[in-house]
Amino acid sequence: MAKVENLSCSECGQMHCYRRNKKFPEFCLTEGVEVAQVAQTVKTYQGDSIDAKVARAAAEIEGLYYCQISRVEEIVAFAKRIDATRIGIASCLGLIEESKIFVKVLRAAGLEPYTVLCKVGSVDKSEIGIPETLKIQCDCYEACCNPILQAQLLNAEKTHLNVVMGLCVGHDSLFMKYSDALVTTLVTKDRVTGHNPAVTLYTSKSYNKQILDPVHLKSL
Predict the structure, then answer these.
(1) Which domain range does residue 48 map to?
(2) Model-wide pTM > 0.90
(3) What DSSP string describes 46-112?
(4) Domain count, the chain
């Protein structure tokens, strides 16, 4: 394996920054970052801004419910703590049934869900330059995903918090870029692993050895 020149947190074996019970490596980012920069972020979290409210709500939920409630429940708890009542759902077409269940959860919690599907606007993929050969099903109408329009429609609804429900890699990036509201993710799409992408990492020495194969990766 080639030598890593620009070392970062993934090369650290200490994690001293968490408990302060070991020691910082020479390349530690905590040691290298300017004291003033750290102080500025802390000041932000101590204030009354939405950033501070979000940071404290996230930490509080972690402390209260660590390994006790699901991410579905965590989103409900988080929304309540930041006074987010209007919850937008940016849903993949393939996860609309799951989104419908999540809508029931939000309503049971007294929140107001509003869902926008990825195919909203119904524009054929050919109109954005995708050839028929790259459609999932060739020679038929196949709408492209429209994450920018999803974000715009949720912006129009003035949602307080938007939840990504299985948007494609890249489409989720565009949605987050154009969303006015804060964004969190409930489901990360990975059809091969049943929407549990961490499985690929856990099995990188067995069933998924190909993810560490340079030849395979360069062919993607």
Answers:
(1) 20-68
(2) yes
(3) HSSSHHHHHHHHHHHHHHHHTTTS-HHHHHHHHHHHTT--EEEEEE-GGGHHHHHHHHHHHHHTT-E
(4) 1
